[in-house]
Amino acid sequence: KLILGLFNFRYLLYNQSVMHFGTLIFIKNNTQRYTMKRSTIREHVFRILFRYDFYGQEDFAEQAALYFDARVPEKIVPIMYRKGPVEKDEDDDELDCAVISDMDRAEIQSRAEQIAALVPEIDKQIEAACDGWALGRIGKAELAILRVAVFELKYDGIKPAIAINEAVELAKKYCDVKSRSFVNGVLAKML
Predict the structure, then answer these.
(1) What is the pLDDT averaged over residues 144-150?
(2) Per-residue pLDDT averaged across 115-119, rounded?
(3) Which among 81, 50, 51, 75 has a CA at the least distance from the CA of 63?
(4) Would you list the DSSP string of the chain?
(5) Which among 151, 103, 107, 99 has a CA at the least distance from the CA of 125?
């Protein structure tokens, strides 16, 4: 099966998964490439993990499924099929309106479930790095960001500079100003 996409590239692109013919690109269906950037996948994983403290391990799989079902389906239309500009409400988030492929969804769910399975171990590592802070005192968003970052540092093999930078970027977006330095400091102690 081939997925046909119309892209206008000025150079010849050819490898095992993509062939370029004029302005048409044929992408083989068996490719292992994701359509999302890792930072976007990381943000989706964070948003799913944020629910962990509210629902616990036993309801986590259901909450992960609900995360994808609660997105804004009428606004999820690939750009090439839009007949005009899509009106966005003030409350609409870019992640809620983005198209998620089945491969990306599987990757997001897999990473979220892997982290959720390791939460007790990850929490011990976070608590050890937080001098004088019990986990109950850490905000839920900060804790979810730290869990994702610790997983990437200790279990996923992501370079420390990348994992810490991405965690700080998530803290900038979802937390207050002081949280950025807190997240950065905790993760720096774990190196």
Answers:
(1) 97
(2) 94
(3) 51
(4) -EEEEE---SS--BSSSEEEETTEEEEETT----SS-HHHHHHHHHHHHTTHHHHTTTTHHHHHHHHHHTS-GGG---GGG-SSPPP--TT--HHHHS---HHHHHHHHHHHHHHHHTHHHHHHHHHHHSTT--GGGS-HHHHHHHHHHHHHHHTS---HHHHHHHHHHHHHHHS-HHHHHHHHHHHHHT-
(5) 151
CB neighbourhood size of 24 (10 A): 13
Q: For residue 21, count other CB atoms closer than 10 A to its CB.
A: 9
Give Cα separations from 138 to 83, 172, 176, 178, 190 (angstroms).
46, 16, 12, 12, 17
> What pLDDT, on a 0 to 100 scale, did the predictor assign at position 1?
36
Tens digit of each residue's pLDDT (9 = 90 or more) over 32-68 = 455 778 999 999 999 999 988 888 888 888 888 888 8
Measured in residues, the chain has a length of 191
Return d(Cα 168, Cα 181) in angstroms, integer.
8
- Angle, helices 102-117/38-49, rounded to nearest 10 degrees: 50
